[in-house]
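Sat 14:20. Reprocessing the chain from the morning session after the first attempt stalled halfway. Input below, unchanged.
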Amino acid sequence: MSTALSDFLVKYGPKAGSAGPGLMVREVFGAEPDDWQDELLSAYGGSERQISVESCHGPGKTAVLSWCIWHQMLTRFPQRTSCTAPTGGQMENALLPEVKSWGRRMPEALQALFDVKTDRIVLIANPDDSFASFRTARPETPEALAGAHAPWILLIADEASGVPGPIFESALGSMTGSMATIILAGNPVRSSGFFFNSQHGEAASRWKRIHVTAHAGPHCGDGSYVSNRVSKEFADMIREEYGEESNPYRVRVLGRPPKTDEDAIIPFEWVEAARERDVKPNVTAAVVWGVDVARSGGDLSAVAKRQGNALIEPIKTWAALNDIMLVVGVVKAEWDKTPEIEKPAEILVDVIGLGAGVADRLVELGLPARGINVSETPALDTSRFRNLKTELWYAARDWFGKRDCVIPKDEKFQQEITAQKYQIIDSSGKITALPKDKMRQHIHPRRSPDRADAFVLTFASNAATAIHGKWAWKTPIKRNLKSIV
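Finished this time. Tokens:
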């Protein structure tokens, strides 16, 4: 061993203990860790073997994970580092580029020791005994953190809330050695699972827990850190848009798990998981549009486009379009600019209020529009649901619950779709989704769940078919009920 390498290991390696990683970050990378990052580095370099970091959005989490990976590669031998994330996007666009970026900041002599590949970093002199691997976590391939056996082991799960349970169960086989360390980090988007339990469950006492928030307050508690990297403008925007009691504010700003409302139809964590899920849309399925027409000045008209298991683009909304012809014009413009192969098989329009006129005019223009009155009786299960609206909401719940769907990132849609609540209205035990006027208090006093309602309408085709049988699409669906929800 050269004198230079020996001095490097003495200064930063195992003999340096908990001080080694932080010192290396400052002197090799020229970075100054935040207080919470320093605590994580000290825990990793010291005697802690199970570390869990529950954080807000954007506190520098990926950077500190990268520092740990490079410290492991530079100061431990033989060693194996296994890194995973719940999606290819998180791995390929966040963690792996960050690791490579910090590697390029090392002195050239240190860079020359390693071969940086697409999904792997190896020590050139001994690639079999010192490497870091990067693999996306998928339930069908639970070995993302498994099979790592060496005197020094480092397992890292980025955005750990989204990593499936079987991945962690498989990883436990690598944690038998006294020098094996696992670090979980991420936004706490679930109120259950391995990551949640490491912070709040029965196993929490066995973990070194770190909490990072973007806003000081009673939720912090002892040992919480307030990040100085998250802008006040971001925290204020989330608070003003969704409210301090909302799940987006809890998760993105406070760094705390979402509330589990027992009366919510669709759980927050189901929708969160669908935002970046690595699944391909079913291109053989028909495209269906749902159109919710604004009923008052504060509402929005909205168009949702779904193809099988995918909401294929962010839901479009238009303000103050409470004129039938204006709404028709917007929908027709969307139709005209859509390539023929992507045009919808059906356009399902809520006909309550101005929607009836919109549906009629779209049919006159030759578009495959159908009017849907969500206040009518359920199509498939009259014993369970009070009306068609509730049945459609539970069809949407089933769609998310299958965990094979994907949606774009859209905080407003996520807030609306997870805010919808139900109640049991009488001794019959039938379920009803709360009407729009009551739902405003759960979203915003002046706003309606228009995006969510447009999305839910995309499930109305099967319901209408069950009621009325097969028909030519130009044949209007007759609605007889007068009640409005």
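Confidence is low (pLDDT under 50) at residues 466-485.
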